[in-house]
Amino acid sequence: MIGEGSASMTQQQDPELLRLGVRAWLEQNVPRNWRAAMTGTGQDTFVRAQREWFARLVEAGYATPHWPAGWPGGGRSLAEQKVIYEEVARADAPRLILYFVALYHAACTLMEWGTPEQKGRYLPAIIQGDIWCQGFSEPNAGSDLASLRTRAELRGDRYVVNGQKTWSTMAQYADRCLLLVRTGASQPPQGGLTYLLLDMRSKGVSVRPIAQITGDDEFGEIFLDDVEIPIENRVGREGEGWAVAQSTLASERGLTLVELTQRMRCSLGRIAALMQERGCAGDQALRRDLGRLVAKVDAACALADRYLTKRISGEEAPGDASIVKLWYSRTLREFVALGLRISGLPGQYREDFTRGGSQETGNWAVDFMNSYNWTIAGGSDEIQRNIIAERMLGMPREPKTWTAP
Amino acid sequence: MSETLHQLRESARHVLAELGLAAAEPSTWDLVTELGWLLVAVPEELGGLGQGLSGACAFHTELGRGLASVPYASATLAIDAVCRIGAGRRADWVQRLTAGEYVCTPLSDSTQIARVAAGKLTLRGVASAVPSADKASHILVCSSAADCVALVPLDRAGVQLTYRPTWDSTRRLFDVHFTDVALDEPLMLARETDAQALCRALSIQRDLALAADSVGGAGALLERTVDYLQTRRQFARPLALFQALKHRCADLKTQLAAAEALLIGSLDRIGDSLDAPGAEAAAKAAKYLACSMYASLAEEALQLHGGIGMTVEHPCHLFLKRALLNQQLGRRPDCYEPDLADALLGGL
To answer: Which of A25, A230, A238, B257 has the greatest number of CB atoms lying within 10 Å of its CB?
Structure first.
């Protein structure tokens, strides 16, 4: 089964057999010393390494286990997908950051909403390495995404788009963008939105990287100045953009957190190693803090597992995903805060950071700063708390009667 | 969860709801024995329902929800112990204990020293946190050195019970003092390495029982708290409308879900192999997280209830007191976090 990538077969097998196969493959194929190679490197080198790693995974059929049967590597059950992610985490393989939007957001949205022409054009290109980015957030539409203002006007057979998008991961390297724009009035707020597919090489598109507090610039701003998008690049009907965007946001559906919680469990060893290195492995107060963290990390793994089990059995309830994300993000913050605390004064000295790792790379100051990605992006902790309170606990929604004084 | 267990659990929830929160011990105990709840984890070949540790924990959870005043955890630990002894004496004991004869088990570790005096094995010391010991025929004792596990009749000379009223009024705890009490050979359940394994198995089950009780109690209390916030109006609106309070409730719900997931995860991981490597750490993690979650959830719940939570007629305080006691039961409370760190550091 190793290297199996035939397009036609539905791959279903005993997850434990699959586990052995994936493990053996990873032992052979994870780039040796990739962490060292990706530390202190620029974006270009990282992008090259990501492309190579992606191609290897595609060849083995492990990049697209969540795609439907019929696609190379597709048709895996959730149980099988889970095994693959667990093994990838266990092997400490690089994360496919550059391809996340393409493999999940773009692919799942097109599978659900795309026309046959769109599917035929864009999905095979993803497998061949097309990089996608997301154009949802705007400077004045973060948590309140529905208030976005980038405007598209239909002129003949094309939309003309003007506006600005932000927080778009690796936008400077993207071939295409999932673009959410306003085409009509905002009543209700989610109305009047339309979903377009943008070729990043179109005239009028410019990208400016955002200088982040870590010294990295993995996110970018996208400026759209009279950009023309052919009407056949619209996904869904005009005004249906909000519904399409929901599919995009729901696309990874818990699997990422299976991977990330497993990676976090494996990374506990970094804190243990740090304690040895700092000569404080016997410190009782630190051992207590570490023990508390172990229980929380175990619970994060258990939550992600249970969420996936519920999805498999069709018992997922509104808010379940928010609970997993909120617990993960809070635990991650505690994890990196403990690492930073133990790393002491040396942890404050500026060191090169590692690209493409998990959230716990051992450069604790950078890990600490990056951990906000999980408490702010993808629905901030505050948004998750609203969802849990309103949809799970049945507490009332915010009144909409507020007016500016 | 099996279909059988799901049904058992639903009916337990229903029965306990009918009975009311923190119902009287005698009537609840009668129900527990009549409805066969003591048989849940007993293997089928011994006449039980064969639902294992997960089955027992489902009932601990439901009894925790209802703040039940029965010594169910204590009784089921003793039943589990007699299920594990040699076939010769087992059937008789299992039958007696599942029919309602109560043998109590301490819910905390304390000092009992078994030693040989005048050619006989005798016991000295005190067993603490023994629930409803005045209703029991025997006590299950693990010696501190874990070199023997025995049943001791409570009417034996040298055994003395002291009732220790706790703030938690849903439990009745006793100290059981032993002054050179001779141990009977026929009542000896395990010696040496067998005794160590049995002690470990009982500690694991005790941790999981306390975790399950805490998950059940916390779930019930959070529901009540949210209901209260929906009903109580101040500033011309329900308190539940304030985002500051919604977010606190969402955090409590998340902590509860995490503790519950960890408990279920630990139960899955342990399965029937209480002696498997990692079983002890899995139980400790579940106990630690669930009991600290219950205590902090109950602490928040009282604050969210405001003044009414400080009154005796509102049940908020019953949950808080049970939660605070749960945190102190089990192994020495301070050992859980360092032990989890040790398990990690040792396993690297």
So the answer is: B257
Minimal C-alpha gap between B218 and chain A (Å): 14
Least CA distance to A386: which residue of chain B?
B247
Q: Are B267 and B319 within one domain?
A: yes
The whole-angstrom separation of Cα A135 and Cα A178 is 5
A263 plus A358 within the same structural domain = yes
Q: Interface pTM (ipTM) of the complex? A: 0.95
What span, in angstroms and rounded, lies between the C-alpha atoms of B138 and B156?
9
Residue B30, pLDDT above cutoff 90: yes
B312 and B240 share one domain:
yes
Q: Do B207 and B217 reside in the same domain of the chain?
A: yes
Write out the two tokens for B330: 């089990």
Of A288, A295, A323, the CB nearest to B257: A323
A266, A305, A313, B62 from B6: Cα distances, Å: 34, 20, 15, 12
Residue B286: closest CA among chain A residues belongs to which residue? Answer: A295
Q: Which among A269, A294, A327 has the least Cβ separation from residue B340? A: A294
A294 closest CB neighbour out of B243, B250, B285: B285
Q: What is the pLDDT of residue A10?
A: 46
pLDDT of residue A58: 96
Q: Which domain holds residue A162?
A: 132-239
Answer yes or no: do B250 and A388 touch at CB < 8 A.
Answer: yes
User: What pLDDT, on a 0 to 100 scale, did the predictor assign at position A8?
Assistant: 37
pLDDT at A399 over 90: no
Within 8 A of B235 by CB-CB distance, chain A residues are: none
Structurally, chain A folds into a number of domains equal to 3
Residue A30 inside a domain? The answer is yes
**pLDDT score of A311:** 87
Average pLDDT along chain A: 92
* Rama region for B135: left / alpha / beta (φ>0; ψ in -120 to 50; rest): alpha
**Tens-place pLDDT, residues B231-286:** 999 999 999 999 999 999 999 999 999 999 999 999 999 998 999 889 999 999 99
Residues of B in contact with A294 (CB under 8 A): 285, 340-341, 343-344
A252 is catalytic: yes
Confidence at residue B2, expressed as pLDDT on a 0 to 100 scale: 81
